[in-house]
Amino acid sequence: MRISPKITQALAVLLLGSATFFTVMVLVFVIVFVLGKGLPGVTWEFLSTNPRDMGRAGGILPTLVGTILLPLLAIAIALPLGVGTSVYLTEYTRETRMTRALRFGTDCLAGIPSIIFGLFGFIFFVVGLNMGWCLLSGGLTLAIMILPTIIRTSEEAIRAVPNSWREVSFSLGATRWETVLKVVLPNALPGIVTGVMLGIGRSIGETAAVIFTAGSALRMPISAFDSVRTMSVHFYILAREGISTEKAYATAAVLIISVLMVNLIAYGMMHRFIARRAR
Amino acid sequence: MIQASPAKITIRALRVFHGQEESLRGISLDIPANQVLGIIGPSGAGKTTFLRALNRLNDLVPDMHAEGQILLDGKDIYHPACDVVALRKRVGMLFALPVALPMSIYENVVYGPRLSGVRKKTHLDEVVERSLKAAFLWDEVKDRLRMSGLRLSGGQQQRLCLARVLAMEELEVILLDEPCSGLDPISTSKIEDALTILKERYTIILVTNNTKQAARVADETAFFLMGDMVEYGLTEKIFTVPDDKRTNDYVTGRFG
Hints:
The complex is a heterodimer.
Chain A (H helix, E strand, L loop, with lengths): L4 H34 L5 H5 L2 E2 L4 E2 L2 H32 L4 H14 L3 H15 L6 H25 L3 H9 L4 H30 L2 H6 L17 H10 L4 H34 L1
Antiparallel strand pairs in A: 1-2
Chain B lengths: L6 E12 L2 E12 L3 E5 L6 H8 L9 E9 L2 E2 L7 H7 E4 L10 H5 L1 H5 L5 H14 L3 H4 L12 H13 L6 E5 L7 H14 L4 E5 L3 H7 L2 E6 L2 E7 H6 L4 H7 L5
């Protein structure tokens, strides 16, 4: 017996529609729940003062600074390395067993749980290189952690640049490097930015890798060799050790809003860039 | 007429391999300066491969290599000491499909000159006007040079591509790979008009699937078939009394 196309169509719309609805509802629920619990505690004083009594009172200023500095440092290290690697793999090498092995390796790296990176960072940077728990150890560890993401997204973006554009550039007497600079990278930029965003998102939310390498000091960091606590770590400690549920939710609310803002700013910048080029 | 002009490009026993397959099987040809050489033949004849051998664009394709000699003004372009980047500035190319780069009309035209280190604004402005005029596009775009080249129509984009090639100051040879295959008759005739003027300054090699176009534009014509050059001579001769029967069959439309 064949079901009439009209019924299958209606069924498909119903099933897919409810899947979408369910997904969105879960997301909305999480955000509304955290913001509802946390927002009342978010005041100017909360954002602009140091925590007192282990975080039971006062604000989160040092963790806010830490949450900004640590991902920035990680991106500053990972972006040139990652984009450089993907340009090399796509533009300067031909597809061989070697490049396939490299790509497989990056894919595996991307799937490793972050706590393994934390452990590696602890053994290598904190203890091995005697750097201690600090901003730099944490930044380097996060950079290693997000490198695979940046490499893979950049690579996809670079591959999506039409080959005919490269040929035109070469035919006009451009070298490979000039072609990369003038044609490939500008047109791969939106994709690269997406990779960077994913990387920033992962670093902002990262707890396991950070707590092992950047530590959890509540002081304001003054140099790259100071220990810092990010908002995620702060939230974890407040909640885990039962210091203050109220402050934990307020921290979580700030964290969610920061991630949203980072995304909005990045997409805004990207759209302006695309619009400027397409004019 | 053939003897009167000195050979701009001398090709001796050119063979091009694509992996195991031999795409060109020993082409020898003297291409005189300041003429339009038409290359006709059915698809798969090696016309495009031949063209792309002349500016070494085939180098970009993995497992493709050439044997034999191509001399440009007496210098072997496949010699290890040959500067490929400089070569491609002398031997410009127009592709079958118009490919405007995703940047403004202005930036498209000055792409080559900028690579050669031209910085002066007044100089670049001059280049843009001169090249766009030579490609019969200036009047249509002079008020919107900052607009993206991608927003032009196909025919306009192809003329923009021509202007971009003409903007290169080192240019001596223009290669055209079926430049009108996707264009309307008006854009086609504009490109053809441009070619007849441009041959006074440049050496032009025009690959075309449209035998009528070769008959209209080319001074001399070569007929390619399955990697061989079957016949080469004055265009009138190729189209009226060719020596080879296969040429006759092709130009009269009996196959191809």
